[in-house]
Write a structure and sequence with these properties.
Blueprint: H1 2-9, H2 15-47, H3 53-99, H4 102-107, H5 110-152, H6 154-161, H7 164-201, H8 203-208, H9 212-265, H10 270-311, E1 333-340, E2 349-356, E3 361-365, H11 372-379, E4 387-392, E5 395-396, H12 402-408, E6 409-412, H13 423-427, H14 436-445, H15 449-454, H16 472-486, E7 490-494, H17 502-515, E8 520-524, H18 528-533, E9 536-541, E10 544-549, H19 551-557, H20 559-567
Parallel strand pairs: 3-8, 3-9, 6-7, 7-8
Antiparallel strand pairs: 1-2, 1-4, 4-5, 9-10
Helix pairs in contact: 1-10, 2-3, 2-5, 2-10, 3-5, 5-6, 5-7, 5-10, 6-9, 7-9, 7-10, 9-10, 14-16, 19-20
The chain binds adenosine-5'-triphosphate.
Main location: membrane
Keywords: ATP-binding, Cell membrane, Membrane, Nucleotide-binding, Transmembrane, Transmembrane helix, Transport
Transmembrane segments: 54-70, 126-149, 155-174, 239-262, 274-297
Length: 578
């Protein structure tokens, strides 16, 4: 019921339009209810000579036309409301997802999220836009027909309506059984979408391992799960829908039985009897409709629960209520006794203390899984420490506005995700207003200037899904150019050049040094060229800084570093498909 009330809340901005569709629906149904009365009168008129038949004929035709016009207008108004509600919900959901922290997406499945933003929202839209108005229309039709019928003949009314309580019981039972079933259909649809997303985005790995058949089997099994559950729902509908449609027929049969005695005895006129017959036909529509709306409401509530589950999950990296204003960023970074772990009770960083002076370049090295990338992500506040703090120019990053922080600290990862857009748009991602000269300069700093000549349409070339039209090394350089154009005060390069050949890497390192200015850099790499770029090397192990010093000096006194650097050449051979 709570979900239902919350769903209704989305109609609030469109109160007037909803009211207008209810008024239009009521107008249409008034015309519908009046027609059987007129038919009854016409029948009685025929029996007494048929003098006013033309008037009745014209009135019936006029009412039918009015009903048509009102129904068309109602559908137009309701259609608009339903699409607006869907738009609002979709906006809200997307905006909310954007505010959630990276940690949420570590666990969420993209397909599940897409399914909530499409299938579930559509179920809500159908109910709020159409179902609700149908429900009101059906109930009002039933009440209006009931009033007219009771006024005309309580006896015939009882004959027509005695199955109504039975109908309510059957409909309620249907609702109880179908609600969990339709919620499960929606859940399985989402799982199917997630499976499809995994297969499509991982197509390269699937091909490399010839795993098409395995993936097809998994997809088929997910599709069959949807089928089985949808069949369960369909079986329920197959049984209950005709039953709901059948019960009013019992009323009709009783009406004929009672009428066959009441008309000859003169208790009711033939016209009244025909009118009642008309009412039972008019009533069948709304009764069927109520069954349908019930199903719609159940699907909408099931979908609403799933959408609200997402909307109610607040961001766990909250924006400070009163952020510390930043006048001039210098770019000094400090990790103060930072404890952090991805899983509760399994700390990865254990009281890390690390200070990086403004404008300095620090390289983080350490065994695989030591937490170097994690340190970079904490600097960019993609995660918050469990204990301790990350400070930028002495201010806890949790007290800075996210907008300000993102402008100051930019992280370039190994993956260097590119969007399915032009080369220009990808490089100018943080500065869409950048001129072509600025975009070209950034590409040159990142050692990717030759790319513009190589690509068929230069800066306008679309890079394909995730930039797959480029090589791994090209993708990394475009990602670096994107970061350099953003001109952050603090740049975190996390294995950001791992796919680039050593000669190009040296060229990029030289340009990074030349253009560094006051930029603070945190480099995660074991490649000597990049380590030489750093003022200091920091060795991370056991969740802390275990050694620190200038590259040659530390290399001489730390066998661990010597080992890490000499074995790191292997990473050059890593391919894009890993
Ligand atoms: N999003 C995540 N969710 C759960 N665990 C994670 C996540 N990201 C990393 N980890 C785990 O945290 C540990 C440290 O990962 P991190 O990427 O920081 O290490 P690293 O030192 O950069 O390693 P490498 O040199 O191999 O890149 C690893 O054991 C990894 O499995």
């Amino acid at each position: 019921m709570r979900t239902f009330r919350r769903l209704l809340g989305f109609l609030r901005p469109y109160r007037l339009a909803v009211a207008a569709s209810v008024v239009l629906a009521c107008g249409a149904l008034a015309a519908g209810v009046a027609i059987p009365t007129l038919i009854g009168r016409a029948v009685d008129d025929i029996r007494t000579g048929g003098g006013r038949l033309t008037t009745y004929g014209l009135a019936i035709a006029g009412l039918a036309c009015a009903r048509l016009a009102l129904s068309v207008s109602r559908r137009l108004v309701a259609g608009r409301v339903s699409l607006r509600v869907e738009l609002d919900l979709r906006d809200r959901l997307y905006e909310h997802l954007q505010r959630l922290e990276v940690g949420f997406f570590d666990r969420a499945q993209v397909g599940q999220l897409v399914s909530r933003a499409t299938v579930d929202l559509q179920a809500i839209r159908f109910f709020l836009g159409y179902g609700l108005v149908f429900a009101v229309q059906s109930v009002v039709t039933l009440l209006a027909a009931l009033a007219v019928m009771l006024w005309a003949s309580p006896l015939l009314t009882a004959a027509v309506l005695w199955p109504a309580p039975l109908l309510v019981l059957v409909a309620a039972r249907y609702g109880r059984r179908n609600r969990p079933a339709s919620q499960e259909v929606q859940q399985r649809m989402a799982e199917l979408a997630a499976e499809a997303e995994q297969s499509l985005s991982g197509v390269r790995v699937i091909k490399v391992y010839a795993a098409e058949a395995v993936r097809s089997r998994r997809f088929r099994s997910a599709a069959e799960r949807v089928y089985d559950q949808a069949m369960l729902s369909t079986r329920l509908r197959a049984f209950y829908s005709p039953l709901i449609a059948f019960l009013p027929q019992l009323g009709l049969a009783t009406l004929l039985l009672v009428g066959s005695r009441a008309v000859p005895s003169g208790a009711v006129t033939l016209g009244e009897f025909v009118a009642f017959y008309g009412y039972s036909v008019v009533l069948a529509g709304p009764l069927r409709m109520l069954g349908m709306v019930l199903g719609m409401a159940q699907r909408a509530v099931a979908a609403g629960n799933r959408v609200f589950e997402l909307l109610d999950r607040g961001p766990q990296l909250p924006e400070p209520t009163s952020p510390v204003p930043v006048r001039k960023v210098r770019g000094a970074l400090e990790f103060q006794r930072v404890w952090f772990g991805y899983e509760r009770g399994r700390p990865l960083l254990r009281g890390l203390d690390l200070r990086v002076e403004a404008g300095a370049t620090i390289a983080l090295v350490g065994p695989t899984g030591a937490g170097k990338s994690t340190i970079g992500m904490l600097a960019a506040r993609l995660y918050d420490p469990e204990r301790g703090a990350v400070l930028l120019d002495g201010v806890d990053v949790r007290r800075l506005s996210t907008r300000e922080l993102r402008r100051t600290v930019v992280l370039v990862g190994e993956d260097g995700h590119l969007f399915s857009d032009s080369l220009r748009a990808n490089v100018a991602y943080a500065r869409p207003d950048a001129s072509d000269e600025q975009v070209l300069a950034a590409l040159a700093w990142a050692g990717a200037d030759e790319l513009v000549e190589q690509l068929p349409e230069g800066l306008d070339t679309r890079l394909g899904e995730r930039g797959y039209r480029l090589s791994g090394g090209q993708r990394q350089r475009v990602a670096l150019a994107r970061a350099l154009l953003a001109a952050p005060r603090v740049l975190v390069l996390d294995d950001a050049l791992s796919h680039v050949d050593p000669a190009t890497e040296r060229r990029i390192a030289r340009r990074l040094r030349e253009t560094s200015g006051d930029r603070t850099m945190l480099i995660v790499s074991h490649r000597p060229t990049l380590l030489e770029l750093a003022d200091e090397i920091v060795l991370i192990s056991d969740g802390r800084v275990s050694a620190r010093g200038a590259f040659p000096e530390l290399l001489a006194r730390s066998p661990r570093l010597a080992e890490l650097v000499s074995t790191s050449g292997a990473s050059v051979a890593r391919t894009a498909v890993s």
